[in-house]
Write a sequence for this structure.
């Protein structure tokens, strides 16, 4: 039997009892019609390895796993749940469907790790230890960011990543869809965004260098994109697992792939190519009405695809070189009564802040959107340390913490020379586990503006899914616990010991976490 | 509604009627207990995209998809089935469960391509055109070979590949598990096989060269292996989909990874490393009793894991250099009364032929096992053209056709300079579709010895799953039709036109088939 102490993340309250519930061919799932799809998902998670039918019924006859909505559990919030296992029954209650989904993940972790196999396993007793759990997350925003611009990641990997987020009760998938190096989402009105913008001639490889003469390249083209039907599939798949997909369309910097497709979006009108190396370039969007209309059209399609309340517009790393040199940009500064190019960027972001607000959405941007004045409805994602987040929260804005130290998962996990070469920096598993999303500088109202945090996966030096998994895991496991569990339960030694069994689960799921395989040298 | 003419492979008999059956929330699956798991698999294939509950019941109430065993369909063989769709009912009959599995794949292809999505799709009418189909395969052995020795392929990719084989009614997965460049299957008695043999320091990259001074390398270590539990999962997953997994343990050549792990298996006793480049080397297994016992131990574990009647022992490309120079090998030739080193290889293979036969299994080997005398129970896999297969079939042995032209899918699909660099050679989609597995030289009894054929995926120049998919598809689609459909239905123009819709299916399944994405240049 699996010790309940191997759960990740730790539930808010857990009491162990004696005895266990054992899944058998007679075990039924019972659920009201309104929880039918949650019951089906749970069955799909339990059936492949057990080979048991786990019929779904409206009411129980004998041993069952019962799902139910219970308004009295509103005290546990939108995502909380109650899970009770006795030798006779497993009962899952929550005030909303999302709680049922999280409880199902806890239930999976209470079973032997073989439950994660995709075909029947012989000789395993499918016992669930008797427990009483009441659980709820500490933060509402528990995110995983993935950059598919630098390296395109296949849809199948995105779906697998969503399964892993669900397993860890992470609930926001931040999909960084556009970059200098590639535009990854089909936009019907502007087909060249993917016909041209999704492809580049080559890709820079490690080691990182800022000296153009020292750059090395893979020597082959790279690209790919998601059709709108693919995006719908990903969004629905995520929603079924309690995850919101946050799309990011980068502007006004990091948009060279769009400019390569439609040169009139730039400042010079001159043709450029989709970028093949990493870093920050001077080529940014122009500020003409045509650019605003173009991206409004893009967002029209994006809003149709993504029900997320939040929409990310990037806003980071936008050099002002071209705007200083471009008469149209200077004219815009004058006509709008702006002080300088910083305010011009702020004007640009404010435009989309109010455009999105009129459509019932809220803008999110990286912390550079503070420069030149923060748009009134904006939520800030604080990546250059915590100061941007602190300032925004103090000013009454919502904040998502994403500081490079320790939430940038493109930094290496150890300082060993055997780590794959990458972007530099170092965030250990222990660093991530020790992270406290609410800075000391914030309390009361300011602290409440910290919605949560997320782990960032920038893929300059991650050419394929297996490398992404190497960098992401198990650090995202640590972050999941930081964001879900009560802070007083935080204990790295306990985490490390629980992680052992959890890594078995990840290995069965064929996750290439750091440490799974080790070459003999 | 999907035209029934888009089916791949073509059914033996198809009659279209008017009208259609439409899946709704009321649609039930009915199946006797003995077909319960086939019903569950079908539900798992229909539910994600439709979002419909598709409850499974023992008997029908209203509109249903019914599965049933019917002894009178024994005339359609072990894999044949009858599928009848009317506006009121879908009925699937077969004499064995495998036929039900194949019929389910046909049913999926009769639905709109969106049925292959993994989350609910809005706005699609899930209509199945009325048809009467009676179907059975032309050949019993319809295979796909995958070399995971040259490049390790993650378990998740193997499972996906099995799903694709099932979609194409291919029924043998030939898993090439050991090579000079890597040993990929955990053997409990000999842990160094994977601790040492599964890892190499580097990997040769394209372009191919036989000049050691011109070889280029990736510059990073490579490796990986499957645990025995992983293997069990793959084998069961395949079996649920009507697919037999044929394991290959290479001997006496292509075994350097094993020798690197246990130098006493070689002829020199000297330590060697797991090979980092491609080709044929002089380092082969020794012929001492210790080597026979070692591989008997290995096969003891392999037979436990793989229920397949057939077991592949390799037998190809074994240079005799070391045996000529090794006193122990020369002594074995003398003591066994053998003529030369060719007969020594034959003696080696015969040993395992009879060892396997005593355990109720049958040995398969590449066509070099003909040299020096074919072992009495051996089945020959004919790869160096068809002559080996013809000779073996005439001598009364069973044969599986795997000739380089046109079943080697590591050869490029076109002669365009834009194809990724690889091993050389060229087998077009049309070549594969035109392939006739029974050579003109064989008829009657000889022709009956041709069990079927298979496509070979050697991965020297396929470093990852996406490259494998690029090389495999859609050529395996063409081969599937060759091996399943009646030869009189063969028509490349028809295939090409049906392929269009089929590629939509493959794109939805995120298969990187050749032609799916095209960079602009």
């Amino acid at each position: 039997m699996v010790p309940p102490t191997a759960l990740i993340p730790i539930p808010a309250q857990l009491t162990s009892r004696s005895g266990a519930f054992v899944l058998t061919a007679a075990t039924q799932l019972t659920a009201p019609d309104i929880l039918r799809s949650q019951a089906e998902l749970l069955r799909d998670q339990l059936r492949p390895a057990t080979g048991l039918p786990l019929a779904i019924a409206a009411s129980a006859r004998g041993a069952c796993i019962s799902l139910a909505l219970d308004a009295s559990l509103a005290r546990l919030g939108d995502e909380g749940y109650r899970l009770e296992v006795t030798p006779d029954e497993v009962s899952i209650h929550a005030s909303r469907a999302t709680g049922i989904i999280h409880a199902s993940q806890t239930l999976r972790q209470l079973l032997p790790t073989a439950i994660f196999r995709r075909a029947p396993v012989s000789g395993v007793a499918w016992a669930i230890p008797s427990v009483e759990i009441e659980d709820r997350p500490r933060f509402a925003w528990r995110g995983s960011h993935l950059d598919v611009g630098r390296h395109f990641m296949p849809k199948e990997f995105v779906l697998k990543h969503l399964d892993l987020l669900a397993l860890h009760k992470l609930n926001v998938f931040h999909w960084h869809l556009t970059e200098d190096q590639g535009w990854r989402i089909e936009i019907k009105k502007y087909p060249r965004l993917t016909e041209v913008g999704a492809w580049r001639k080559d890709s820079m490889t490690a080691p990182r260098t800022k000296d153009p003469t020292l750059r090395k390249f893979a020597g082959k083209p790279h690209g790919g994109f998601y059709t709108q039907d693919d995006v719908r599939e990903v969004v629905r798949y995520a929603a079924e697992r309690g995850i919101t997909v946050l799309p990011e369309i980068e502007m006004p910097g990091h948009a060279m792939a769009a400019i390569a497709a439609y040169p009139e979006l730039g400042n010079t009108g001159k043709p450029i190519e989709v970028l093949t190396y990493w870093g920050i370039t001077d080529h940014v969007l122009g500020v003409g009405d045509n650019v605003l209309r173009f991206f409004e059209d893009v967002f029209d399609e994006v809003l149709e695809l993504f029900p997320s309340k939040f929409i990310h517009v990037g806003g980071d790393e936008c050099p002002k070189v071209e705007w200083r040199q471009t008469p149209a940009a200077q004219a815009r500064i004058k006509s709008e009564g702006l002080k300088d190019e910083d305010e011009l960027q702020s004007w640009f972001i404010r435009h989309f802040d109010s455009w999105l607000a009129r459509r019932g959405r809220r803008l999110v941007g990286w912390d550079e959107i503070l420069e030149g004045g923060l748009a009134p409805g904006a939520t800030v994602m604080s990546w250059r340390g915590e100061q941007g987040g602190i300032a925004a929260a103090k000013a009454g804005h919502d904040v998502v913490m994403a500081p490079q130290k320790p939430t940038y998962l493109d930094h290496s996990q150890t300082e060993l020379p055997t780590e794959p070469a990458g972007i530099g920096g170092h965030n250990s598993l222990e660093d991530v586990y020790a992270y406290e999303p609410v800075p000391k500088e914030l309390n009361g109202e300011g602290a409440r503006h910290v919605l949560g945090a997320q782990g960032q996966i920038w893929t300059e030096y991650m050419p394929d899914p297996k490398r992404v998994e190497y960098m992401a895991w198990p650090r995202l496991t640590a972050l999941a616990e930081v964001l879900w569990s009560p802070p007083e339960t935080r204990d790295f030694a306990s985490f490390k010991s629980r992680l052992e069994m959890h890594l078995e689960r990840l290995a069965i799921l064929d996750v290439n976490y750091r440490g799974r395989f080790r070459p003999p040298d």
About this structure: DSSP finds 17 helices and 21 strands in chain B. Chain B touches chain A through 49 residues (CB under 8 Å).
